[in-house]
Design goal:
The structure holds two protein chains of two kinds. In chain A, 41% of the residues lie in helices and 20% in strands. Chain A is built from six helices and seven strands. Among the domains of chain B are: 17-98; 587-630 and 659-674, no CATH class; 677-815, Immunoglobulin-like (Sandwich); 820-928, TATA-Binding Protein (2-Layer Sandwich). In chain B, 54% of the residues lie in helices and 15% in strands. At the A-B interface, strand 2, helix 1, strand 3, helix 2 and helix 3 of A face helix 1, helix 3, helix 5, helix 7 and helix 9 of B. Chain A: Oligomeric complex that consists of at least the alpha, beta, beta', gamma, delta, epsilon and zeta subunits.
Chain lengths: 184, 929
């Protein structure tokens, strides 16, 4: 087994929703999934194997698949079968964390669509055409610009009650987790 | 109210649905060309556009170009957050648009004087926009960016250079010094790095000052640049592995891979580089440790015992980390080791046993299959503790069986079957485990998996007591089996196997019970099974069965009555019927299919279909084919739990090998018979399975050879595949001159190739008359000297010059016994070996090889025979080993060989004893070793 010498280590990055539809999909130099039909088929057959199964990593269809499910979004990073498992999982987990920070702790389908500019920039700052640019979530976040503030009207912060149920829930989980860790 | 305002944010579609393509297109044109530009609106539009692209939509080239052009207008706007997204959009659209070069100057301006936040984006986009002719204009820019103090800018430039490699290698080559500098330098983030988001608060003390990712990118770029300079690469690797200069885990992983490549090409360098690899086994990052383990496992044959143990220790540590992915990777590696050296991982057995209950199913599956392998190894080594460990594992799995899913049970069943096949001596416990499973509740898929496994065990285990045990259990199973399909299959098997056992009446009783109690489908197959007993056993049994069957003539179901009547009719002519039932062979289905389809395509049905031409495979040959397939399949299942084609590289190769072999043979046959002279030779007996390289794979002309033996006509046809790897020359009148060192071979004719274009391929056939083994003192072994002859013409822009004739010396080709032999399976090697008495021969040779393992693989391939009784597995600490090989020669005779290997110093002594049905074959095999 000869390891992959080239820098092209990631073959695709996917964001799928809770029904397996793609929110984001980018394949890099992936001969096995060159056409859109092949890609769709891959996503659709992969989805039932990873949806609500929190096993982080699996081998599927001759590829190494690392994934994270947060609320109703699945973040998936796919690589060649003999790629370093720990590395690919780190990319996936850290990208997830970066997205969580960028989307104000509410990584869910609605927010991803709403702040698609941030999401696509974050992924572009993580993987460029198959080459991993950065795996530290803090640095990925620091590279993504906030949308421009054009009108004062849009600048009013949205009240917490306007966020979806998911946001409130994940916000609460996070806060409770923090409290517990502090031992309070 | 809240949902309303929420949805209003996305003006183009509701959440989840895709926005309308044309609407977005129109809106984009309108907004981007507006003056003044509304930055916020535009950024949102761009995001929607990207969303379309990332969800799989694409724009036709003209629309894409229009979009591209209007997006480039946004360069007027100064807002950096808009600019960042503009770059992303340009990058994504550059593939489908034309005239993309027009944005080059705007991008370059940004790189030189733009805001720091989008400078890296600009650099990465520039690489997409440039083509091979325009790269040189940006050379200066890239060089400056690579040595930039900001790590992000440097990384972006290095990555871009890497992307440009295929198009502009000579330009990128000039970045070598800058890249080297980048690897060794220390670049720090500017203090403004964390300003954008208030998430981190005012304090930046806990944030990293650099991530050293540029080291990884620079190292990655240096490799292709240094690729042809082995010494240079070696120097780079040595200096980096010692100094502790590399801080980035990814860079270290890359470094480990380079070391692996260097050592694979030149194992002598391992001693020099091992200390560095070993130090990575104790790195703080688990991905580095993992990579070091992977590499060392790949180099395992060059390692000493102690060195190997340090890998195991490292993996052992990784097995207990909380991160699932790391545990998974570690167990995957251990599983891989277990395939070749199960005894080496005995130390991690306790960890593995804990992992059986792991929450991750992939991990627990791998743990079980690995454990089963270690068990096999201890039984092969004959250790006394093995029985205990088998019992322990089985009891553990029995406990586990209650709590796991069906799918997973099937994996375990397959693993057990694999183990039983490999180590038949362990069958008792394992068979009872399987039959216990059969008794418990389960779905059809589960039960059929168990029944499949038991069927295979009957076919491949050579132990009549085991057969009886399994058959009895199956009888018991059909007593209350709710699945008709399974009952029918089992009844069929009972009909085939039952009559040969010592107590056929036991089975008859069970079958008859079916006849009374079951539905019509089962009844009719029971009738067939009974008739087989009657015909094969004869005597009083036949008389009794006759009575039983006569009763069936009054059955309510047509099919049952019909079958009973036929069976009774057949019993009257028992001898003929017996021949029909107990047939020993089967037509080669692949050949039959291709012959039939060609027969149908001729449309001439006045001629009778030539059924005689289809090769008949004997039962043994069939078994050996199935056995190989089975083993490959099981091996593949071991590497992963998925049923889909997921497997490690080794599994993939093996699988392709077995499945493709038969296909390839047919393909060769079709190709050969397209040539009338060769078609005249008649039946093709055997083609060598893998092409042999007669040149280095990197040469300008690459020649591979396949040997085809026509035993009936005493001919040998060599098929030379010639590939021209040069892009600027054309070969004409290509032929091969063959000189044999054996007078018995004479060249009959040569089928040349008229022309091989640049980067083209052609096939040259050379037919030789070959000696037949039937003759006395036939010298079959030979070596051929080959010379490639051709007219060489240079091609320049489609114009060819007159050319000149030239020749090219290629390596010799040997004819060995393997060309006359195909692997054969038999579960009882010893008895076959004892029965072969026509011819025998023995010889002693020494082989230059470092490990027994290597020799066994070599023997297997060279002689093209099948190792039996698990003798292809060599315990790594063994000093001697016995390989039992069986094959079938092209004349249909069997040939068996026992090779005793012993290590003596640096060499391996082999004593070969061969016996064969065909005279001369045994000597041939001995001489071929």
């Amino acid at each position: 087994m000869s390891a992959n010498i080239s820098l092209y280590q990631v073959t695709s990055v996917l964001l799928l929703d809770n029904e397996g539809h793609r929110l984001f999909a980018k394949y890099y130099h992936d001969e096995d999934h060159a056409s859109l039909a092949q890609q769709r088929k891959f996503e659709q057959t992969l989805f039932p194997k990873i949806n609500k199964v929190n096993e982080d990593i699996l081998l599927y269809d001759n590829h190494l698949v690392a994934y994270k499910q947060v609320n109703d979004v699945l973040v998936v990073v796919v690589a060649k079968i003999n790629e370093n498992e720990s590395l690919i999982y780190s990319v996936c987990a850290n990208l997830t964390e970066a997205l969580t920070i960028l989307l104000d702790n509410s990584l869910d389908k609605n927010t991803v669509v709403e702040k698609y500019d941030m999401v696509s920039l974050a992924i572009d700052e993580t993987v460029d055409d198959g080459i991993i640019i950065e795996i530290d979530p803090a640095i990925i976040v620091s590279r993504v610009t906030n949308p421009p503030v054009a009108n004062a009207v849009d600048n009013i912060k949205i009240d917490i009650s306007e966020r979806g149920l998911f946001n409130a829930f994940s916000f609460a989980t996070k806060k409770i987790g923090e409290r517990l860790q502090q031992g309070i | 109210m809240s949902t309303q305002s929420y949805k209003g944010k996305d003006a183009y579609a509701g959440v989840g649905g895709t926005p309308d393509k044309m609407a977005v297109f129109q809106e984009c044109l309108q907004q981007f060309n507006a003056s003044p530009v509304n930055a916020k609106k535009c950024r949102q539009l761009l995001a929607t556009l990207l969303r379309l692209l990332y969800q799989g939509e694409s724009f036709p080239s003209s629309e894409s170009t229009t979009l591209f052009f209007s997006i480039s207008k946004l360069f007027q706007h100064k807002d950096s957050s808009l600019r960042q997204l503009v770059y992303l959009a340009i990058k994504e659209l550059s593939e489908t648009s034309q005239d993309i070069l027009m944005v080059t100057s705007s991008i370059m301006k940004d790189i030189q004087g733009g805001d720091l936040i989008y400078k890296p984006n600009a650099i990465r986009t520039l690489a997409k926009v440039l083509d091979s002719t325009t790269v040189s204009s940006a050379e200066r820019l890239f060089k400056n960016a690579i040595v930039d103090k900001n790590p992000i800018v440097s990384s972006a430039a290095l990555i871009s250079a890497y992307h440009l490699l295929p198009q502009a290698k000579d330009v990128v080559k000039r970045f070598t010094n800058e890249s080297l500098e980048a690897v060794q330098s220390y670049k720090q983030f500017p203090p403004t790095q964390w300003q954008l988001h208030d998430f981190y608060g005012a304090s930046t003390a806990n944030l990293p000052s650099t991530s050293y990712m540029y080291q990884f990118h620079a190292l990655g770029l240096l490799h292709p640049l240094r690729n042809h300079d082995k010494m240079g690469l070696m120097k780079l690797v040595t200096s980096l592995s010692e100094g502790g200069q590399l801080k980035n885990s990814l860079a270290l992983i890359q470094l480990i891979r380079y070391i692996s490549e260097i050592v694979t090409n030149d194992p002598a360098l391992l001693n020099h580089l091992y200390p560095a690899l070993a130090s990575f086994l104790k790195h703080k990052s688990d991905m580095v440790e993992l990579e070091a383990c992977k590499t060392l496992v790949g180099l395992e044959r060059h390692l000493s015992e102690d060195q190997f143990m340090s890998i195991i220790t490292c993996l052992q540590k990784l097995l207990s980390v909380p991160r699932i992915s790391t545990r998974f990777a570690a167990i995957r590696l251990i599983n891989k080791i277990s395939m070749s050296h199960p005894e080496k991982i005995m130390v991690v057995v306790p960890e593995l046993e804990n992992l059986i209950n792991d929450q991750n199913r992939s991990i627990s599956t791998l743990a079980i299959t690995t454990l089963l392998k270690t068990m096999g190894s201890s039984s092969a080594a004959g250790s006394s503790s093995s029985t205990a460990s088998v019992d322990r594992l089985i009891s553990k799995m029995t406990l586990l069986m209650d709590e796991i899913t069906e799918e997973f049970k099937i994996v375990i069943i397959e693993a057990i079957e694999n183990l039983t096949l490999k180590f038949p001596s362990k069958h008792q416990q394992l068979v009872s485990f399987l039959t216990d499973l059969l008794r418990e509740d389960g779905s059809l898929t589960l039960k059929s998996a168990v029944v499949d496994a038991l069927f295979d065990l009957i076919a491949y285990l050579d132990d009549s007591s085991a057969h009886q045990l399994i058959l009895m259990n199956l009888c018991e199973f059909i007593e209350d089996c709710e699945y008709t399909e399974l009952s029918v299959r089992i009844l069929h098997l009972l009909g085939q196997q039952g009559p040969q056992t010592s107590n056929p009446s036991y089975y008859i009783r069970h079958i008859y019970n079916r006849l009374v109690l079951e539905n019509s489908v089962v009844r009719s197959s029971a009738v067939v099974a009974l008739s087989k007993f009657a015909i094969v056993c004869g005597g009083s049994i036949a008389a009794n069965i006759k009575t039983l069957l006569t009763r069936c003539l009054n059955d309510v179901d047509d099919e049952v009555r019909d079958r009973a009547a036929i069976a009774l009719g057949m019993m009257k002519r028992a001898p003929d019927a017996k021949k029909l039932l107990v047939s020993d062979g089967q037509y080669d289905l692949g050949a039959l299919e291709s012959k039939l389809s060609s027969y149908l395509s001729t449309n001439d049905f006045t001629i009778k279909f030539p059924i005689d031409e289809i090769p008949v495979l004997s039962a043994e040959e069939l078994k050996s084919l199935e056995y190989t397939k089975k083993m490959n399949k099981l091996e593949a299942v071991d590497t992963t739990q998925e049923a889909s084609p997921v497997e490690g590289p080794s599994g993939a190769v093996a699988d392709n090998g077995a499945a493709a072999d038969a296909l390839k043979q047919q393909q060769y046959e079709a190709e050969l018979f397209a040539i009338p002279e060769i078609a005249a030779f008649g039946k093709l007996s055997k083609s060598s399975s893998t092409p042999i390289y007669l040149t280095e794979k990197e040469n300008e002309f690459v020649v591979t050879a396949v040997k085809h033996v026509f035993a009936d006509a005493s001919k040998l046809v060599i098929q030379y595949q010639v590939s021209n790897t040069l892009s600027n020359c054309q070969l004409e009148d290509v032929s091969i001159v063959v000189e044999s060192d054996n007078a018995a071979y004479e060249v009959e004719f040569n089928v040349p190739v008229p022309e091989i274009g640049p980067n083209g391929q052609g096939v040259v056939y050379v037919a030789l008359s070959a000696p037949s083994l039937d003759q006395e003192d036939a010298e079959v072994l030979a070596a051929f000297g080959n010379t490639l002859i051709y007219t060489y013409k240079e091609v320049d822009d489609g114009v060819t010059d007159d050319g000149y004739s030239d020749e090219y010396q290629i390596e010799d080709l040997e004819v060995l016994s393997g060309d006359y032999v195909t692997p054969l399976y038999n579960s009882n090697f010893t008895s076959v070996y004892d029965q072969l008495s026509v011819d025998s021969d023995s010889t002693v040779v020494t082989i230059n090889a470092s490990s027994l393992d290597e020799v066994v693989t070599k023997l297997k391939n060279q002689l093209s025979m099948m190792p039996l009784d698990g003798s292809d597995y060599v315990p790594s600490d063994a000093a001697s080993h016995v390989v039992k090989l069986l094959g079938k020669d092209v004349y249909g005779g069997k040939i068996a060989a026992v090779v005793r290997l012993a290590k003596t110093g640096g060499k391996i002594a082999a004593k070969v004893e061969a016996r064969s049905d065909t005279p001369g074959m045994a000597a041939l095999v001995c001489n071929s070793v």
